[in-house]
């Protein structure tokens, strides 16, 4: 299983080794070498030399903007990482409160049915053929969390015995009700963003959530995983797309990590099967955000 956490560790230790060994000249093109990036003996000459070159080629105001940009960007990354770590440690929702999500996705313009997040027809088809279908048990009772306007529900509905669509946004569920009005194997639930009261214990063979857990705070994901352990039948499979990197520095993405998600599964008696971010022939297709992963997991038969 490819674990995002171990990738983070690998990246961290790789960059530590590189930063100790990298001479000033080897700083990335277009960047001023920092004290950490450069060997301290050659630091003053390297930094001053590059700064002088840039000042000569530009002007003092440009240089001030450039240096301020670099310093504030670095400070921004630092403070965002602290905020995200605090969300995880103290069970804080950050910007991803349930009220915010309910409002955001109720006021959202759904006129493109979520296809605005589909990079290409080939990408979409491969996600269905190479990720969704291989994980889907035969004749399954399925649950989708956060269907939005039904971008993936339309793929699930003809392939399953029954499908429950649960979304925090009443507007999303209204759209799904309209879209699947003629399908007697689909049922609908507006939920509180944490729990699945409409779904009975051990009634589900397959769980799907794509482009949803990016918006859900770790504390709510914890509640969902505990609910999944309740509603999944032994042998059931789940496929959930979520941040693997703690939310990166983009502000709005959930602070979830690949490691923490796997830990939540274990805590609830569920087993991660694999975490991945590319699929299809030769791993040709990948998640739009480099920090995201998909976790596939099962509820073991003897639990
Ligand atoms: C970016 S849209 C994706 C919709 C759909 N999955 C797709 O890929 O087209 C996010 C969806 O997740 C829903 N959502 C956000 N937070 C949720 C939560 N805590 N529980 C259930 N649904 C949630 C939103 O209402 C919205 O429908």
TrEMBL record:
Locate the region Disordered.
1-45
Q: Which SUPFAM superfamilies match?
A: S-adenosyl-L-methionine-dependent methyltransferases
What keywords appear on the UniProt entry?
Methyltransferase, Transferase
Q: Pfam families, alphabetically?
A: Methyltransf_25
Classification via InterPro entries: Methyltransf_25, SAM-dependent_MTases_sf
Residue stretches making up the Methyltransferase domain: 143-235
What Gene Ontology terms describe what this protein does at the molecular function level? methyltransferase activity
* BP-aspect Gene Ontology terms: methylation
This protein is called Class I SAM-dependent methyltransferase
């Amino acid at each position: 299983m490819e674990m995002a956490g171990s990738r983070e560790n690998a990246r961290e230790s790789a960059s530590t080794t590189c930063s100790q060994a990298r001479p000033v000249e080897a700083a990335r093109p277009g960047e001023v070498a920092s004290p950490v990036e450069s060997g301290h003996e050659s630091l003053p000459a390297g930094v001053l030399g590059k700064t002088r070159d840039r000042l000569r080629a530009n002007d003092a105001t440009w240089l001030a903007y450039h240096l301020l940009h670099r310093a504030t960007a670095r400070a921004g990354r630092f403070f965002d990482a602290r905020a995200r770590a605090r969300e995880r440690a103290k069970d804080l929702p950050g910007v991803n409160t349930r009220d915010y999500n309910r409002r955001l996705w109720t006021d959202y313009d759904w006129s493109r049915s979520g296809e605005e997040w589909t990079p290409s027809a080939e990408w979409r088809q491969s996600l269905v053929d190479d990720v969704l279908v291989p994980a889907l048990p035969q004749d399954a009772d399925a649950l989708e969390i956060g269907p939005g306007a039904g971008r993936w529900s339309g793929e699930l509905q003809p392939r399953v015995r029954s499908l429950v669509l649960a979304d925090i946004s009443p507007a999303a569920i209204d759209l799904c009700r309209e879209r699947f009005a003629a399908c007697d194997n689909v049922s609908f639930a507006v939920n509180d963003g944490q729990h699945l009261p409409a779904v009975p214990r051990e009634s589900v063979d397959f769980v799907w959530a794509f482009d949803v857990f990016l918006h859900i705070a770790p504390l709510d994901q914890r509640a969902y995983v505990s609910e999944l352990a309740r509603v999944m039948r032994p042998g059931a499979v789940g496929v959930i797309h979520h941040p693997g990197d703690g939310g990166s520095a983009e502000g709005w993405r959930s602070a979830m990590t690949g490691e923490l998600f796997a830990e939540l599964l274990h805590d609830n008696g569920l087993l991660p099967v694999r975490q991945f971010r590319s699929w299809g022939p030769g791993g040709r297709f990948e998640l739009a955000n480099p920090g995201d992963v998909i976790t596939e997991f099962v509820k073991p038969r003897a639990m």
